[in-house]
Amino acid sequence: MRVIGLISGTSADGIDAALVRIEGRPPRIRLWLEAAQTLPYPEQVRKAILRVAEGTATSTAEISRLHVLLGELFALAARRVCRAAGCTLRDVGLIGSHGQTVYHQGHQERWLTGRRLATTLQIGEPAVIAARTGRPVVADFRPADLAVGGQGAPLVPLLDYVLYRHPARGRVALNIGGIANVTVLPAGANPEDVLAFDTGPGNMVIDALVRRLTRNRRSFDRDGRMAARGRPLRNVLDQLLADRYFRRPPPKSAGREQFGQDYVNRLLQLCGRAKPEDVVATATTLTALSILDALHRFVRPRWPFDELIVSGGGAKNPVLMAQLAAGLAPVRVRLADEFAIPSRAKEAVAFALLAYETWHGRPGNIPRATGARQPAVLGKICFPPCETKASGKVLRRERVIRMGS
Prior knowledge:
Elements: E1 2-8, E2 14-25, E3 28-40, H1 43-53, H2 60-85, E4 94-111, E5 115-123, H3 126-133, E6 137-139, H4 142-147, H5 157-164, E7 171-176, E8 179-185, E9 195-201, H6 204-213, H7 225-229, H8 234-240, H9 244-247, H10 256-259, H11 261-271, H12 276-299, E10 307-311, H13 318-328, E11 332-335, H14 346-359, H15 367-370, E12 380-382, H16 397-404
Parallel strand pairs: 1-4, 4-6, 7-10, 10-11
Antiparallel strand pairs: 1-2, 2-3, 4-5, 6-12, 7-8, 8-9
Helix pairs in contact: 2-3, 2-16, 6-12, 8-12, 12-13
């Protein structure tokens, strides 16, 4: 079956799309990546997403419009990845869309009647994607896990298990996106042996600081150049690492609610008049130390591992990678690009795989990763209109930009 996976991460830079051929069932699933593309968001759309995600002033009308607009953009990304693969949407059996997360509170909190609830919200209307592409769409993956007591995240561990499990080597898959997360794969692991959790900030805090300190001239620290010129502020790191999140045992998940704009403001306040390079170096070291602390505190004592496999944008930051290698020696640090699926496509491939599992009525969550009481079939399925062709053309990018302005 050919399946398209779609996702936009916490950095809200754009939509990652992957076209994958999948066969089999866990643990004997086989994957072939046929194409991967990224569709950048128009700047005004990105600003609208971040405004909603940061909890600043908005309205239900704006969220509703954005929900539909992102559905149009996700459909456009699906069409483009087909074109890159040299096929058409008729050749695709299914689309899996994670959407754009604008709110995620994975741990339960008392609300209104006193009942403890965990909540999440991903936008990007799947009915629009189905109508524009003529393909069935599986979307809204997290709520089914929340409903059985899980945190709705992380959901990539199923793909990590398929890609990286080894009969004799213990491995940890580390993804450094906006948030950093790990999947622990003991040697010879079965699915029920897999542990996964979010360690804390990945690139989110670093990127926000770079934008702020360069007045939007840069959006991230390319090749870790700013961090390499700076010196981490030890007293600031000590205060930041005292955050309760880092000491909380897994399962746990994080997002902008913990490490968003308020957190960045606090970090800047703690840094005072420090040089921009020192501030970025501090944030980079915070990411490295929080990952290392999680591995030493929660993983190594019970599940020794031989290899760390790194994916995500943080894998391109040599300062961050050097800190991880030094803190884990003699563990071998490898890049996900050495394996079947390149790092840039991994999360999109994960949601293609989850959609494939849902389509076949099989669970996609790993309870030890999310904290769920039981396995759950994830997502909701939107079918296209009852014609042999898509009900309407995917909007041209220029028109989508006008809609978002």
